[in-house]
Amino acid sequence: QVQLVESGGCLVQPGGSLRLSCAASGSIFSIKNWGWYRQAPGKQRELVENITSFGIRIYADSGKGRFTISRDNAKNTVYLQMNSLKPEDTAVYYCNAVTNRQYWGQGTQVTVAA
Fold this sequence. Notes:
- By secondary structure, the protein is an all-beta fold.
- The protein contains no helices and 11 strands.
- The chain has strands at residues 2-7, 11-12, 18-26, 33-39, 46-52, 57-59, 67-72, 77-82, 91-98, 102-104, 108-112.
- The strands form 2 sheets. Strands 2, 4, 5, 6, 9, 10 and 11 form a 7-stranded mixed β-sheet that branches. Strands 1-3-8-7 form a 4-stranded antiparallel β-sheet, with no helix packed on it.
- Strand 4 (33-39) and strand 5 (46-52) form a beta hairpin.
- The termini are far apart.
């Protein structure tokens, strides 16, 4: 079992930056991939960025050049650094971990508005 707790979501102005955190506990050693997803109102959940246990990153075009996923293995924490935020980045952001199944956090709200 893996438990994920996201934090860091808030209201930010367009052009601003935000760093989301995802703290993991439980069977950390079995995690193969970490990821950040988001879901805007009325839309399907979509991949933002993913990082494998080998450090290979996979990212969606929507965040290319603006978002960066990183890991701190000592803290069992994954981060999503988001820069140059746009109103269309407004969504609930979810942390994801994959072992032999998927685990999700409860989500953290990011709102980009003036």
